[in-house]
Amino acid sequence: MIDCFVPRNDDKTHKPFALINYFCAMSVTKPSLPKGTRDFSPIEMVKRNYIYDTIKTVFKKYGYAEIQTPSMENLQTLTGKYGDEGDKLIFKILNSGDYLAKVDEALLTTRNSQLATSKLSEKALRYDLTVPFARYVVMHQSEITFPFKRFQVQPVWRADRPQKGRYREFYQCDADVVGSPSLLNEAEFILIYHEALTNLGLKDFNIKINNRKILSGIAEIIGKPELIVDMTVAIDKLDKIGLDGVSKELLERGFTEADIEKLKPVILLEGSNVEKLASLKEVLATSETGLKGIEEIETVFSYVSKLTTDNSKLTTVIELDITLARGLNYYTGCIFEVKTNEVAMGSIGGGGRYDDLTGMFGLKDLTGVGISFGADRIYDVLEELNLFPASAAQGTKVLISNFDEAAELYALPLLQQLRTAGIAAELYPSSAKLKKQMSYADGKNIPYVILIGGDEMESGLLTFKNMKSGEQQKLTAVEIVERLS
Question: How far is it, in rounded angstroms, from Cα 123 to Cα 162?
Answer without folding.
Answer: 23
